[in-house]
């Protein structure tokens, strides 16, 4: 009786092993289904996916991108919103998932990675301290996509910039100033203390980071990227909604005041004089799109589908 019971148990185990081996060994489809079931129903990896946000997170939404808390991607628009949310949050690494209904998800991720201009636009909508210098994306056939972000500014640089910017605010900004007065004061201060790094200057010292805020604060020279980043940092300090608008050759600020958007270009208000003297202008100080077109300096042709607020 005991022997027969043992035989029955052994035979049952062998049959189960044969069935399991058949399922796992003969069909990738079944293996994939088992993995997905394990991931989704046992590990619960897709339940309540949360993203940590740092102090530089921007809770504003725009025509081009919006913040989201749904990290199961169902279409290309949502894919861009997730990438914006990840970069905007300040996190360094984050994993999201493609919904099975979105068949082109991985191919779209690959295309976006190859199109640097398209994904770089996202930097224009986030705080400079959260913008990326480089993004690496890995993925697998199950639709798991992991984004690794290398940021433009290091923590050491951020600490230095915050300290210097706070000192300028303490010395130049008064409590009773309107937003326009604050912007005008900083516009004038930055132009007075800085000079544009021309091609000749950059070619003599190609190793220097003229496009970064810490360099323009320390050495008083910078490119349009440094001017725009520095102004953006001040605007965030003042809690003024802003983005950076970019053309193929230039970048400047766009500022929202009293529900209206205004262009603000410190670089073009800091012209290069032949005699080397400083000059402060206000032609590009809080102007509307129509006026920007009228000035027609040839540097402000931008993608109007991306920067809809700018028009």
Tell me what the structure shows.
With 311 residues, the chain is an alpha+beta fold. The chain is built from eleven helices and ten strands. The chain has helices spanning 2-26, 28-42, 76-89, 105-114, 116-120, 155-172, 179-193, 199-204, 213-219, 224-237, 289-295; strands at 72-73, 93-98, 132-139, 144-151, 195-196, 221-222, 242-246, 251-257, 260-264, 285-287. A four-stranded mixed sheet has the order 1-2-4-3, covered by helices on one side. The N and C termini lie far apart (88 Å).
Helix-strand layout with pairing:
Elements: H1 2-26, H2 28-42, E1 72-73, H3 76-89, E2 93-98, H4 105-114, H5 116-120, E3 132-139, E4 144-151, H6 155-172, H7 179-193, E5 195-196, H8 199-204, H9 213-219, E6 221-222, H10 224-237, E7 242-246, E8 251-257, E9 260-264, E10 285-287, H11 289-295
Parallel strand pairs: 1-2, 5-6
Antiparallel strand pairs: 2-4, 3-4, 7-8, 8-9, 9-10
Proportion in β-strands: 15-25%
Give the helix/strand class.
alpha+beta
- State the total count of DSSP E strands: 10
Number of helices: 11
Average residue-wise pLDDT: 89
Shape annotation: elongated
Amount of helix: 40-55%
SSE string: HHEHEHHEEHHEHHEHEEEEH
Q: Biggest sheet, in brief?
A: 4 strands, mixed
Task: Tell me the strand order in the biggest sheet.
Answer: 1-2-4-3
Radius of gyration: 27 Å
Low-confidence stretches: none
| Terminal residue distance | 88 Å
């Amino acid at each position: 009786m005991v022997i027969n019971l043992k035989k029955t148990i052994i035979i049952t185990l062998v049959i189960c092993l044969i069935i399991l081996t058949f399922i796992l060994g003969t069909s990738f489809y079944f293996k994939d289904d088992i993995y997905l079931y394990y991931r989704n129903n046992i590990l619960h990896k897709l339940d309540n996916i949360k993203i940590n946000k740092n102090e530089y997170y921007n809770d504003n939404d725009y025509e081009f991108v919006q913040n989201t808390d749904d990290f199961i991607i169902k279409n290309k628009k949502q894919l861009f919103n997730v990438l914006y949310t990840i970069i905007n949050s300040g996190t360094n690494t984050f994993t999201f998932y493609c919904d099975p209904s979105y068949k082109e998800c991985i191919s779209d991720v690959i295309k976006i990675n190859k199109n640097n201009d398209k994904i770089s636009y996202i930097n224009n909508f986030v705080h400079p301290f959260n913008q990326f210098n480089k993004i690496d994306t890995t993925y697998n056939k199950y639709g798991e996509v992991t984004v690794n972000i290398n940021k433009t500014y290091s923590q050491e640089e951020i600490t230095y910039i915050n300290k210097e910017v706070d000192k300028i605010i303490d010395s130049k900004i008064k409590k009773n100033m309107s937003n326009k007065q604050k912007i005008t004061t900083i516009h004038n201060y930055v132009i007075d203390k800085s000079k544009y790094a021309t091609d000749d200057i950059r070619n003599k010292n190609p190793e220097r980071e003229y496009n970064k805020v810490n360099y323009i604060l320390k050495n008083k020279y910078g490119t349009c990227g440094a001017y725009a980043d520095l102004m953006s940092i001040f605007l965030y300090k003042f809690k003024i909604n802003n983005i950076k608008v970019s053309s193929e050759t230039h970048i400047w600020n766009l500022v929202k005041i009293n529900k209206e958007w205004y262009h603000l270009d410190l670089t073009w208000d800091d012209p290069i004089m032949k005699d080397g003297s400083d000059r402060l202008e206000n032609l590009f100080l809080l102007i509307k799109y129509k006026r920007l077109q009228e000035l027609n300096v040839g540097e402000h042709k931008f993608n109007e589908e991306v920067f809809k607020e700018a028009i």
